[in-house]
Design brief:
With 264 residues, this protein is mainly α. The longest helix is centred in the last third of the chain and has 28 residues. The chain is globular, with a radius of gyration of 18 Å.
């Protein structure tokens, strides 16, 4: 459904309400196949946050596809984080592993032609599919990955680890929405005001911007793998440290965006 939505959008410029309906349908299908976020005692709330997550991530990955290689690199980072964690835990018989390895190989092959100057572009066809796929595995391997700690700490880890893995699309979307609303513009209309664009306005070329995103992705990937596989007991100390990193990353990218607004 995500793939077909993107295909129709690329070909016919699908109306926003149709896109929203298809994205909600992706979330509903995940719920009916027992893939949904389990964070509240109320199943209704769990279903609601699952749909919000799926719709939000499909749009975030789609919006992130605004410069050569960025969405491809971020998707590779997210998949690599899960695959490495499965290898560390020795979970080699997990059927999801082979699906993710296949998609990872596809993205690596695609990156050769999507790297600046790109000769192939992902478009909505690729980004909507990736958004649906990544939101699903995010639910399975991050949202519902609990430790034997108190409920409050377990919930904090679920949220922090998930936001950490998907930090680039989340921060990019949040920054763009805030800036456009402040200007009185619709957040759903495209423009060159994304995080990658503002970094390029500082004088970096497309390849250098991609390398900056690689560095951020590698750091977040390492921190996530440590949190999932090597921190035996999640505590409030780790909550503070990981929140501090996320806050620093958000403030840095948000400041760059606003710095460029002031210059322009």
């Amino acid at each position: 459904i995500g793939f077909l939505l993107g295909l129709f959008d690329d070909a016919y410029d699908t109306k926003p309400l149709i896109k929203l309906f298809a994205q909600i349908l992706c979330g509903v299908i995940l719920i009916f196949t027992n893939v949904y976020i389990r964070i509240f005692d109320s199943e209704i709330l769990n279903y609601l946050i699952t749909i919000i997550w799926v719709v939000g991530m499909m749009n975030s990955i789609n919006m992130l596809d605004n410069m050569d290689a960025i969405t491809t690199l971020v998707s590779i980072s997210i998949l690599s984080t899960i695959i490495i964690s499965l290898f560390i835990s020795g979970n080699f018989n997990n059927p999801d592993l082979f699906i993710m390895l296949g998609l990872l190989a596809s993205l690596v092959g695609f990156l050769k032609f999507n790297w600046s100057p790109a000769t192939i572009y992902m478009g909505d066809t690729g980004s909507q599919f990736l958004g649906a796929f990544l939101s699903a595995i995010g639910i399975i391997y991050f949202w519902n990955n609990n430790d034997n700690v108190s409920e409050m700490l377990a919930i904090s880890k679920q949220i922090i680890v998930t936001v950490l893995v998907f930090s680039i699309p989340i921060i990019d979307t949040t920054t763009v929405v805030i800036k456009r609303l402040r200007k009185g513009k619709s957040p759903f209309i495209g423009g060159k005001d994304h995080t990658a664009h503002h970094i390029s306005y500082l004088g970096f070329n497309d390849k250098q911007v991609a390398l900056i995103f690689i560095c951020i992705s590698v750091i977040t990937m390492i921190l996530t793998i440590i949190a999932i596989n090597f921190i035996q007991i999640w505590s409030y100390l780790y909550v503070c440290l990981y929140v501090a990193y996320l806050f620093l990353l958000f403030i840095s990218l948000f400041y760059i965006a606003n710095l460029n607004i002031q210059k322009n």
